[in-house]
Amino acid sequence: MSKSSKLSQWFRRMRYSRLFIALLYLFLGAVLFFTLIGNVRPDKLDIKLLSIAKNSIHSPVTIEDKVTTEKRKREAAQKVPDQYTYHSEYKSNRVNVVESVFSAVKEVQEETKAAQADQTDPTEQPDVSEQEQLQKLKKKLPAELVKSLSDQVLLALLNASPDQLSVARESTITAVNYAMSDQIDMNEADRARERIAKELQDVSVSGGLKAAIVALGQYAVVPNYFYDPVATKERRQLEMDAVDPVFILQGQILVKEGDTITREVYEQLELVGLLADHRAFQPFIGLFLLLSVLLYFIYKQFDQFSKQQRSDKPYLFAYTIIITITILTMKMISIFQSIEYNGLGYLVPVAMGTMLVKLMIGDRFVFITSLIFSISGSIMFNEGITSSLNYHVGFYLLISSLSVTVFLREKKRRSMILHAGTLVAVLNVIVLIALLLLRNGSLSLSETALHLLLAAISGIVSSVLTLGILPYLESGLGIVSAMKLMELSSPNSPLLRKILLEAPGTYHHSIMVANLAEAACDAIGADGLLARVGAYYHDIGKTMQPHLFIENQMGMGNPHDSLKPEVSRDIIFAHVSDGVAVLEEHRIPKEIIDITAQHHGTTLLKYFYYKAVKEDEQRYTEDMFRYPGPKASSKESAVVGIADSVEAAVRSMNAPTPEQIAQLVQGIIADRLKDGQFSECNLTFKELQTIGKTICETLNGIFHSRIKYPNL
What we know:
The structure is a single chain. With 712 residues, the protein is mostly helical. 64% of the residues lie in helices and 2% in strands. It contains 30 helices and six strands. A two-stranded antiparallel ribbon has the order 1-6. Strands 2-5 form a two-stranded antiparallel ribbon. A two-stranded antiparallel sheet has the order 3-4. The longest helix is centred in the middle third of the chain and has 33 residues, at 445-477. The radius of gyration is 53 Å and the shape is rod-shaped. The two termini are 70 Å apart.
């Protein structure tokens, strides 16, 4: 055995192992991580303070500039003037002080008059002197007021007549009330006293009394508007809170080419992580976590998928190759962002990846695949700004790849791929127009036209690449698509023409088996098309010696009548191995080869076994007349084997009734079940019942009753 064949066998064994599957997930994650890492890695610039910027530098992230925010808050607080509080109660207090002075003066005057009235001799000196009156007045007044007003002021008040005192009282109270209605701070107190002095100068009272009420009025005017530290602090805090945080926006120009790197700019570069001595691991961790989530979703999808499909098919391997091809194509296109054209993301043929996934694996993987392409595209086509996401390109790629589920409905004709690609191109253009309108950008007509052209090319190129890549994946991985099966089922296929021309009886038998097998597989949810095509080719080995099989003898004598049982056995057995060899030579997909190799399983060749036992019962055993196998490993192989036996048995019956057909079908299925022919495939008892019922219904439609026409 050559080294290449040994390597091929080793690979076939390894690709189903858990280790290989784990390596595939690891490889897929590595491809995604290392193709995207360059777009999330923050740029490191070797820039010195006060140097000249060689290029314009953009911010790779959106981040709060706390230093500038704090500076603006301080500036806002400094603009707030000191806050003062006006004490309105001071006015009434000072008016009361003035009233209390005049009331005290009036009381002293009345007491003095009363003392004088009690004197019997008018020539005598009054008992109450001015000093005594002054002392009495001082006792009635607050000590602070007495200390602030001179004796001359108090005496002038005491010596005033009642009328003069009344005028003085009303004038002083009015002036004080008016003056204290204003906001008077410490600096304004003297001016307020000067104003009240001027007002009281016009009062029509004697000169001494006028001086007294001026002094009293000035005494009564005090500051009523004081600095409030609490209010000032609260107001400044409100102004600081009203300052919006200052953000450095993603894509914002931090410094233009030729400008000086000032201290402020240098701090901003450090903040966004662009300085050479800055190490930012957050983007790498974020990318790792995001890809881990996506890989987990893929794992769960394949876990469910493997329970419904053949476990021996390298679907995960095919999926990894498809994703890798598409992502690398996307990466190569994104490299040309350096030409400063930001529409290259619209050229990526992501629909190619989802088309291949849909055709080779199934619809259920289209969404998660589209999500991977969308996220990757939004990261790669970040218009040269690292660690940013281009949401417009990401949304465009998501719609473009998801559209495959709508447009590629028919998977059995290759022409549908081109049709789907054309529809994807149209949808790409419509979606891009919508995005350009939503952005309300200022693109020129030529730029817009180029964007739309790239979107249209993306859809067409996706279908062309799919048509080019699909055959290589099918032949290389042994996964046959519906389109490949339709090609193989064409009557113009060289091998089918070979069967038709060289073994017409076998061809007719294969067509009948194909009808039965397809209907039964469709009924149990298996691949009916695969079963049909497998049935077409299952007996191709009979073309080696077609006359040795009864359906091709056409009335001629049966050569087996004169042959030894073991010779006839070898001839019959050989049609399986010969068929496998022919199919392998023509590179027919492995699914078809498996059906050919397994359709007889290890069943007993009963006719020649019983013939041999009649000749020599001691010499021959059942094992000598059992097909070498292997047993059916898939539902399709098992169904084709059942249909093959049923068709051959029913063909030997003369005008079978539905009851006879049902009895025959159930007997064949029960015999194969008892013989263990279904031990290696995942058919259930319920599915076997459905297979029997469907085959009976199909046969009843073929062998329905017909009217006998009389001979003319």
